[in-house]
Amino acid sequence: MAQRMDGKAVSAQVRESVAQEVDHLKKSGVCPGLAVVIVGEDPASRIYVNNKKKACAAVGMYSEEHALPETTTQQELLALVEQLNGRPDIHGILVQSPLPRHLDEGAVVEAIHPSKDVDAFHAYNVGKIMLGNYRFLPCTPAGIMELLHAYAIPVEGKRCVVIGRSNIVGKPMAMLLLHENGTVTICHSRTQNLPEVTRQADILVSAVGKSRFVTADMVKPGAVVVDVGMNRDENGKLCGDVDFNAVEPLASFITPVPGGVGPMTIAMLLKNTVTAAKMQNHLL
Ligand code: NAP
Fold it and tell me: Which residue of the set 117, 119, 241, 243 is catalytic?
């Protein structure tokens, strides 16, 4: 039976160390500040933004919300980002995704100054991740690495399979595993014989977005299984990509949903904001 990787407990440790750093920074006159921009009324985005604000407050960090109407123009949004780029009290800027369809999300991300891009989505930061020379890491993959470290799970020399190739999870996840000397395969919707590939994985990360997508026959006995998915089952209950009940007896470690990867993501956002505050105040 797999050991469950407890994202709540590990993220609490990360938040505790962030709180200590915030305290320390405040004593030298710097209060890390995060601006969260939300456009429109997407209910899931509203929950994410509220959680991020609460998490900032809990570690003593300043945060402010810019809630803009659905009708906001590209020009207005870019003007806000520009204004936040120029504010010395704001060290991190996060524009909550998805934006309404008429807005160009890519252009908005590129408008954020790379030193304030705490999501690490800007091309500059993506390039730094490719080079292995980074200060910010995208929050979800970074949170997963933190979980692997917390459970002393070695990556070096292991067969790692990532299902999903999004810019925010799959691709950076693969790079981080590669930087730790894993032998990495990325799978996607055009991958042939997916179970054959996933069965080779010592570490299997699923970031697909489909409930019960990863079944027991796709998992090698003893594998580490990381479930990034945040889906709703037929009863509207939050669930991951992995058929948890069937895979748990097979795996060596597994992340539950909820309580696995999700809590780590916000903790890493806080960590990135502290890093941004230090960088902008020449403390790094
Ligand atoms: P995404 O952009 O929709 O990417 C999904 C990926 O899954 C794509 O690369 C897609 O392949 C691949 N895929 C779809 N069907 C497949 C199939 N039948 N076989 C193999 N691959 C398949 O999603 P995302 O933004 O990466 O998010 C993935 C999941 O993680 C979602 O449930 C999301 O809610 C969750 N998530 C959770 C957190 C967290 O903090 N826990 C953070 C971010 C995301 P193609 O590229 O070929 O289309």
Answer: 119
Beta strands at 183-187 and 159-163: parallel, antiparallel or unpaired: parallel
Q: Which atom of ligand 1 is nearest to the CA of 190?
A: 47
Other beta carbons less than 10 A from residue 223's beta carbon? 25
Kindly tell me the burial class for residue 276, based on how many C-beta atoms sit within 10 Å of its own C-beta (0-12, 13-18, 19 or more).
Answer: buried
The pTM score is 0.96
52 counts as catalytic: yes
Concerning whether 119 is annotated as a catalytic residue, the answer is yes
For the CA of 169, the closest atom of ligand 1 is 26
99-155 per-position pLDDT tens digit = 999 999 999 999 999 999 999 999 999 999 999 999 889 999 999 999 999 999 999
DSSP helix/strand/coil, 25: helix
- Rounded Cα distance, 283 and 91, in Å: 13
For CA atoms 208, 213, 218, 223, the dihedral sign is positive
Q: Is the dihedral of CA 239, 240, 245, 249 positive or negative?
A: negative
Residue 33 contacts residue 275 (beta carbons within 8 Å): no
Give me the catalytic one of 96, 117, 220, 271. Answer: 96
Q: Write phi, then psi, for 209 (nearest 5 degrees).
A: 95, 30
